Amino acid sequence: MKRDAFDIVICGVGGQGIILASNVLCHAAFLEGFDVKKSEVHGMAQRGGSVITHVRIDDKVYSPLIEQGNSDIVLAFEKLEAMRYIHYLKKNGTAIVNDREIQPMSVLTGAASYPTNIKSKLNQHGKIYYVDAKNVALELGNIRTVNIILLGVLSCFLGFKKRSWKTAIRKNVKKKFVDLNLVAFSKGASRLTNTFSIKKEK
Amino acid sequence: MKSLLSGNQAIARGAWEAGCHVATAYPGTPSTEILENIIKYPGIYTEWAVNEKVALEVAAGACFAGARVLTAMKHVGLNVAADPMFTMAYSGISAGFVIVTADDPGMWSSQNEQDNRHYGRHAKIPIIEPSDSNEAKLFTKLGFDISEKFDTPVLLRLTTRLCHSTCLVELGKRKTHKVIGYTKDIRKRLVLPALARLRHVVVEKRLIELARFSETFPFNKIEWGKKTLGVITSGISYQYAKEVFPDASFLKLSFTYPVPEKLIRRFAHQVKKIIIVEEGDPILEREIKAIGIKVTGKAEIPVCGELTQRIVRESFVRKTRARIKPYKVPARPPVLCPGCPHRGVFHIMNKLKLTVSGDIGCYTLGALPPLNAMDTCICMGASITNAHGLEKALGKSFGKKLVAVIGDSTFFHSGITGLVNAVYNKGTLNLFIVDNYTTAMTGHQPHPGTGKLARGEQGKRIPPEEVVKGCGVEFLKIVDPNDLKATEHAIKQALEFDGVAVLIFRRPCALLLKPSPAYRIDPDLCKGCRLCLHIGCPAISLKSPKDREKPLAVIDPTLCFGCGLCAQVCTYNAILAPRKTKKGKK
To answer: Model-level pTM?
Structure first.
């Protein structure tokens, strides 16, 4: 029987831990027995700039890139970045959006203004879930756990075994932060009480 | 056993499995993680060289000794290393020699979009192009074998999407090779004209043999599908094309120089129409057109930028699903990090309205608003030499409002020769070395100024100031760039100096340090004057408090690094240092 396949776009601001989150996701998918490809960008783009990572999970994956309008899930670490990349989402797809505003330099200097209608715009694109990961992270005492909290939320939609996630976190997170991140992950996973099965239309 | 590896990690694994002895590189996106990952394997001598030319020459020297060698660099790095590479094609090898070039279509982190497949033809060395991490590992190993079989360096060509894409790779074991040892052979390694002339003949003969080999290379292969459409492709483009044309026939080329003419003809005879899907320049297209085969390529698909499956589809099929237009939202270009030691220098240079000849590194971001303090940036090391040229053309008075800015790693890479040149040629030059103790942009690799070696062990530290003095510079000061007053004072002094003046702005990259407690802004003292926004710190923004109309500046404590630069620019003393009285509390 063919299993569910997932195209997942993860976006946000450089420095938010997007690459680590995508590494954990890929590892978990690998442990679930999927073929998986991930594409990311390093270097200059990482210095506080807009960042997008593509993760493709299927029985066989060719291109490491997700086509616009084709992503099953968009996981956005920041609202403006959600808006920037929401066109990657397929019709009626699912987006998980960290309810956080990080102003780009053009906004800070007054050359542009931060959009005020983001949520109403995003809501037109599919099922959008907003998560206040920053506050959860601050409760845990480490702002850097935002990425794994959001990954926990994402896990509600993928149906992977809990064990796969745990192993993936252990393998990818620095040893001294493993326990903290395991807690962060389960905090995130419990943010959504309903889980949804989303099937990719082929 | 399978493991998830990026293209770069796979190359490192391949080098290890192939029994590589020596690996050298200078960091540069998207190639950096190749050496960073080789460092994790035992049994390979690894070296961060000061630049790509040095890296390739060190590798060549080790190759003379009969060691299997690999050197890795980004596409523009190969320009720096081109000189020894061209002649190594003549000299040939004593043991496998793989040169990895990582091109950057889309210019994610580069100054141009050059297609280094041209170098194969230009230097007359074979090119192999993997299309995923699995092939990246395999072709690295095959690269050593091909190099030894044909007595030539081999160019392994990657692109950003390959370097930084991850997929499952089957791991193998290391095959050990002995370092053969050195034997004198001036006919190969001493390229005096009379000897080099003989070698050129060898090179041309070798190209014919390589072309023959290309026909039989098992990864130049046909995947038959429907014969109405034939797709010829290589590298990452194969993956995009495969998604767009799942039913078409494919000729997937992996050994792309010299091309397998007979194989291409055989493919061409059996398909109705041929398209070439290649990123960058029409290289395969020209080769294939030159053998008289009708194909469509760059007439339909762009030369500029990176390909995606959508671009491939829209170029050749035109029918495409309705596109959801992206929203127009404020751009978010990369910025200097909170606490970045470069910020103070750029703030003062902007304030003094200096012309700034820039260079390659994180500090190139000082060009962006609101710092706006960079006029030119061409390539590694060009800050100093471009400034020298500007001064020579426009005179001393211009030179005194002109500054060259270079990072510490870039200074060692190719700044020193420019500095010697300026001193020697009686330049009026203001050189600011922004020394953050690391190669920051590529992820903190060591360099001579740090004294650390690739594997973390202590090497000999070469302080930039000693180099500067040795170059004959008579005005030299070391300044803390977080002290804005001292920075401005030193800059003004340097500008007044007649001759070559060097300031070293020294403070470690913020990403190497732990943040200090956050600063905060007193809403009763802040007048909303926006002065603090001029330093371009991502942690400071304007917000309208609920009871007031006029927006005031606020600091995001989760982003603030605690550097205190903003407190120095605030004229109302509204930005307060963290309270020190309560233990452990911000």
So the answer is: 0.95
